[in-house]
Amino acid sequence: MSRSGQGFHYDRLQRGFHWLMAALIVIALGLGIYAAWQVPGTSPRRELLDIHKSLGLTVLLLLPLRFVYRLVAGEPAYRSAPSRSAHLAATLAHLTLYALMVLLPVSGYVYSAAGGYGLPWFGVFSFPRLVPVDKALSQAGYGAHYWIAWGFGILLGLHLLAVAWHAWIRRDEVVGRMWPRRVAGG
Questions:
Q1: Which positions fall inside the Cytochrome b561 bacterial/Ni-hydrogenase domain (predicted)?
Q2: Does residue 44 have a cis peptide bond before it, meaning omega lies within 30 degrees of 0?
C-alpha cells in the first residue's frame, strides 16, 4: 500500500489535479493554435489570447500545489509492478511533462511581458510585468514558447499513445490508477 493509504489508485485530489490541469492545458493549446491563425490585433484573436494566457498562468500557479501534494501523498502501489525500464521511462516522461508545464507558460509570460502585451487573468486582474519591455527578449520568448509548445504537443501525443497501449494492448492496471475506483474496477 502507498504512503497515503489509497491502495492502487491515486487519491481524489491527485486525480482532480491531473484532470483539471489536463483540461486547462488542452484548451490552452487549442486556443493558442486557433488564435495563431487569426489576424494579429483583431477580435477574436485578442480575446482568445487573453483566455489562453489566463489558462497557461493558472497551470503555472497550480503546478507547485500539485507537485508538493504529490510528494506528500505519494504514488499508489501497483498490483503488479511494471518492469524497471517501463517505470524509468514513465518517470522520465512525467518529469519532462512537469518541466514543460513550467517552461511553456514562463516562455509565454516572457513573450507577452517583454512585448508590452497584457497579462490578464480572466479579466479579474493582471499579472505584474517582471521583465522589461524588450523586443529581442519578447522574440526570444516567442521562439521558446513556439518550440516548447510543439515539444509539449508531441510528448502529450506520446502520453496518450502510452495510455492507449496500457488500456487496449497490455490491458494492465496503469490507466485505472488515475480513474475513480468504481470506474477502474477496484
A1: 9-180
A2: yes
Tally of CB atoms within 10 A around 104: 23
CATH number, domain of 115, equals 1.20.950
Q: How far apart are CA 121 and CA 59, in angstroms?
A: 12
pLDDT tens-digit series, residues 100-128 = 999 999 999 999 999 999 999 999 999 99
Q: Write out the residue range of the structural domain in which residue 128 sits.
A: 12-179
Residue-wise pLDDT for 2-30, tens only, equals 444 457 888 999 999 999 999 999 999 99
Across 37-165, the runs of DSSP E, i.e. the strands, are: 120-121, 125-126
- The strand pairing partners of 140, in sequence order, are none
Domains held by the chain: number: 1
Distance of alpha carbon 174 from alpha carbon 163, whole angstroms? 8
5: left (phi over 0), alpha (psi -120 to 50) or beta: left
Phi and psi torsions of 5, nearest 5°: 75, 20
Q: Is 134 exposed, middle or buried (0-12, 13-18, 19+ CB in 10 A)?
A: middle
